[in-house]
């Protein structure tokens, strides 16, 4: 069934991608003075305060009983999994530009999760393009790791999987409730874990709140962990998970650009070539036919 509003949905998805493209450089800034676990978990704790306030101000009622499990899965992926694992990867020495290439496979991974969870059925060509993209990313990691995948690469692959699961589950939930409520409830659901852990990390890790560290942490807490999902989940719901994820094609390119501008990272030929190869493979996954089973009934805006 054709989506009735693909244009607005895709633009919302792109706005979310634009916000997320600053995440890796922002995390590098935060790591200049903060423990990686404080960055990964603390950003969710800070975002949960914003989420709780937004829910109270909006007078939002609690999710239905059947939605709590999905919110837990989304939270495990985007509140815990991706932030902590990607931060640890950067802390283990992966440059933001290197991480951008690996995370560039996220659109295909998100679409795969859509197949498994949200009833979307890509064609055989989709699976071939996914396999080619995975081979490109793996080859890039092996080349950079002198024939072996480094700990940072393994952490990035795990972060990629966590984000894809969280994106797909959140996009599925956003068909039934506004996207901002999905991420808000996911953060609030995780708050009994993230808030006490953040307090303990603040007391034991000796954070050094330099200007750059505070700026980076503030960005990943307010925008990467929360506000970016307003547009992203709504875009996934309106345009479809596999279709909207094509907007992520821009994310590695934008992150490479920000890494060069703000982190002064040198983007060499191997990194650029790997990024282009991944983009081509992922573009092919987004051009293949996707069917939804069963057909969706459009969710009314609210």
Explain this structure to me?
75% of the residues lie in helices and 2% in strands. It has 302 residues and is mainly alpha-helical. A two-stranded antiparallel sheet has the order 1-2. Helix 3 (36-58) packs across helix 9 (179-204), helix 3 crosses helix 10 and helix 5 packs parallel to helix 13. The radius of gyration is 18 Å and the shape is globular. The model is unreliable at 1-5 and 293-298 (pLDDT under 50).
In DSSP terms (H or I, runs of 4 or more residues), the helix count works out at: 13
Major sheet details: 2 strands, antiparallel
H/E element string? HHHHHHEHHHHHHHE
The amount of beta strand, in percent, is under 5%
Structural class: mainly alpha
**Would you report the number of β strands?**
2
What spatial order of strands do you see in the largest sheet? 1-2
Mean pLDDT: 85
- Taking all Cα atoms into account, the compactness measure Rg is 18 Å
Helix proportion of residues, in percent?
over 70%
In brief, what are we looking at here?
This protein is mostly helical.
């Amino acid at each position: 069934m054709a989506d009735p509003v693909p244009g607005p949905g895709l633009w919302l998805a792109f706005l979310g991608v634009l916000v997320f493209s600053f995440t890796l450089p922002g995390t590098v800034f935060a790591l200049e003075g903060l423990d990686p676990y404080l960055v990964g978990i603390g950003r969710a704790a800070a975002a949960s305060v914003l989420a709780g306030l937004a829910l109270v101000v909006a007078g939002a009622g609690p999710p239905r009983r059947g939605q709590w499990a999905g919110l837990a899965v989304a939270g495990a992926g985007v509140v815990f999994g991706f932030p902590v694992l990607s931060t640890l990867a950067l802390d283990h020495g992966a440059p933001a530009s290197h991480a951008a290439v690996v995370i560039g496979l996220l659109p295909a991974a998100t679409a795969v999760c859509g197949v498994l969870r949200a009833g979307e059925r890509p064609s055989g060509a989709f699976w071939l393009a996914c396999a080619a993209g995975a081979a490109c990313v793996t080859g890039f990691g092996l080349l950079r790791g002198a024939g072996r995948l480094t700990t940072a690469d393994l952490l990035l692959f795990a972060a990629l999987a966590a984000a894809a699961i969280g994106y797909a589950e959140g996009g599925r939930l956003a068909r039934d409730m506004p996207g901002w409520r999905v991420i808000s409830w996911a953060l609030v659901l995780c708050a009994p874990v993230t808030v006490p852990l953040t307090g303990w990390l603040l007391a034991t890790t000796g954070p050094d709140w330099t200007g750059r560290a505070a700026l980076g942490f503030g960005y990943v807490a307010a925008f990467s962990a929360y506000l970016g999902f307003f547009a992203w989940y709504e875009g996934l719901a309106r345009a479809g998970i596999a279709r909207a994820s094509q907007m992520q094609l821009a994310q590695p390119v934008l992150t490479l650009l920000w890494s060069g501008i703000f982190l002064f990272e040198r983007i060499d030929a191997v990194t650029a070539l790997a990024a282009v190869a991944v983009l081509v493979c992922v573009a092919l996954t987004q051009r293949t036919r996707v069917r939804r089973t069963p057909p969706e009934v459009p969710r009314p805006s609210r």
